[in-house]
Automatic annotation (TrEMBL):
Pfam families: AMP_N, Peptidase_M24. GO terms for molecular function: manganese ion binding; metalloaminopeptidase activity. It comes from marine metagenome. This is Aminopeptidase P N-terminal domain-containing protein. Residues 1-20 are annotated as: Disordered. One of its GO terms (biological process) is proteolysis. One of its GO terms (cellular component) is mitochondrion. Its cofactor is Mn(2+). Keywords: Hydrolase, Manganese, Metal-binding. Residues 1-13 have a biased composition (Low complexity).
């Protein structure tokens, strides 16, 4: 059997469709207004989770440009009020295996999709910030190492990035960008509200279906699988956080996550689970009798 050529109408999407480029541009304008005219803001995109695992961008990076490409960087220069997006160069072998991936060689397309002023290769990033004096960087999104893990002394990716910035420009003063982004995100746009409402709807559908499937003798994780089906079948990336499916006394544990116990007749079951839908989620907890 011979393989047919890829159909361009069915090729994997390289960019999100929930927000227009004008909305990302407006968000970046708000950042310019808040960091001061002599500062720059720099964001490091997420790295891949693992081979052939669905990539998920960091919330802050996605909020400002919508790019879902690993190893991307974003530079917001408040002095010129221009934004530069840094992407890896085209990897032909990877695209042959996985499909098209937005890259630095697609500069015109990336500029059109995101509204940024310029797209450059990632290797140009360090030279472009060499003269920066004040750099705003998101901080606190990565968990610190557990002190009980005595042998793990490696710094987090976030800490390594900040150290690299100091190496690139020793004179730099690092400021935290996270409070600014958090403040901007408290006011939701109509497009954001649509995604949040849909996430809430899918959560309700998942809970209702889980109720219908509940009976003594099934396992907690089987109710999670019901919710996962509802989420994925309706366009979500999966769960927005670890599922809490707690039968009986397990409901007393606020963050019970093992979901490996059998549901017992006469007990109640608690479900606290919601989808990751377009980088937005919900948070709904419901409890019902296992025997109906």
């Amino acid at each position: 059997m011979s393989k047919s050529s890829p159909n361009p109408n069915s090729s994997p999407s390289m960019f999100q469709t929930d927000f227009p480029s004008s909305e990302f541009s407006a968000r970046r304008k708000d950042v310019f207004d808040r960091i001061g005219s002599n500062a720059v803001a720099v964001l490091q995109g997420a790295s891949p989770r693992g081979e052939l695992e669905l990539f998920r961008q960091s919330n802050e990076f996605y909020y400002l440009c919508g790019i879902e490409v690993p190893y991307a960087y974003l530079l917001l220069d408040a002095c010129s009020r221009k934004t530069i997006l840094y992407l890896p160069k085209r990897n032909v072998d990877q695209e042959r295996s996985e499909g098209p991936i937005l890259n630095a060689d697609d500069a015109d397309l990336a500029e059109k999709l995101t509204g940024v002023d310029e797209v450059r290769r990632t290797e140009e990033f360090s030279a472009d910030i060499a003269d920066a004096e004040t750099v705003y960087v998101p901080q606190g999104s990565e968990k610190h190492h557990n002190p009980l893990d005595l042998l793990n002394t490696h710094p987090t990716r976030e800490a390594r990035f900040i150290q690299k910035l100091k190496d690139f420009c020793p004179q730099v003063k690092i400021q935290d960008l996270s409070p600014i982004i958090f403040s901007l995100r408290t006011l939701k746009s109509p497009n954001e509200l649509k995604l949040m409402q849909r996430a809430g709807q899918l959560t309700g559908l998942a809970v209702a279906e889980a109720m219908r499937c509940t009976k003594p003798g099934i396992m907690e994780f089987q109710l999670r699988s019901v919710a996962d089906f509802i989420f994925l079948a309706n366009g979500a990336k999966g769960g927005g956080y670890p599922a809490i499916i707690a039968g009986g006394a397990n409901a007393w544990y606020g963050h019970y996550f093992r979901n490996n116990c059998e549901l017992q007749d006469g007990d109640l079951v608690l479900m606290d689970y919601a989808p990751d839908y377009g980088y937005y989620t919900s948070d709904i907890g419901r409890m019902w009798p296992i025997n109906g």
